[in-house]
């Protein structure tokens, strides 16, 4: 198996050398050694970086990725549970985005010049306010997350 210099790894992954060194400091990558005083990486590091990028796209933080994938590219024993939880978060985010899209489509399709005059818009807002109150009232202070991180219930009547 061949070794890649940091510039070859940069060319194969599109990441800047500074990003690769940053990933090393975060425990996501490990150089296999040095050649001529420069870092060298195993050929498998290209796929490891691709995996890290996919995890980032899925919403994992670098700290979460470091806990999930070691610097040698091996996944942690509990990777399925972690991935399942992230998938639930993504599904919830998709649901909230779809809800927002539906409300925005209504706003844009409304024949009214002012949303204040639209009874459907007011029904959407009342339902969403009630859903927010339910989430807040059903969450203990110890587990309360900021509104931006909370699961948003779907508004009725949209």
Attribute tags:
3 strands; 55% helix; elongated; single chain; mainly alpha; disordered C terminus; 3-stranded antiparallel β-sheet
Helix content: 55-70%
For the report, how would you describe the main beta sheet? 3 strands, antiparallel
Radius of gyration: 23 Å
Q: Total helix count?
A: 6
Blueprint of the fold:
Blueprint: E1 3-5, H1 6-13, H2 17-25, E2 33-35, E3 38-42, H3 45-57, H4 62-68, H5 79-109, H6 119-137
Antiparallel strand pairs: 1-3, 2-3
Describe this structure in words.
With 158 residues, the protein is mainly alpha-helical. Helices cover 55% and strands 7% of the residues. The protein contains 6 helices and 3 strands; from the N terminus they run E-H-H-E-E-H-H-H-H. It has helices spanning 6-13, 17-25, 45-57, 62-68, 79-109, 119-137, and strands at residues 3-5, 33-35, 38-42. It has a 3-stranded antiparallel beta sheet. The longest helix has 31 residues, at 79-109. Residues 140-158 have low confidence and may be disordered.
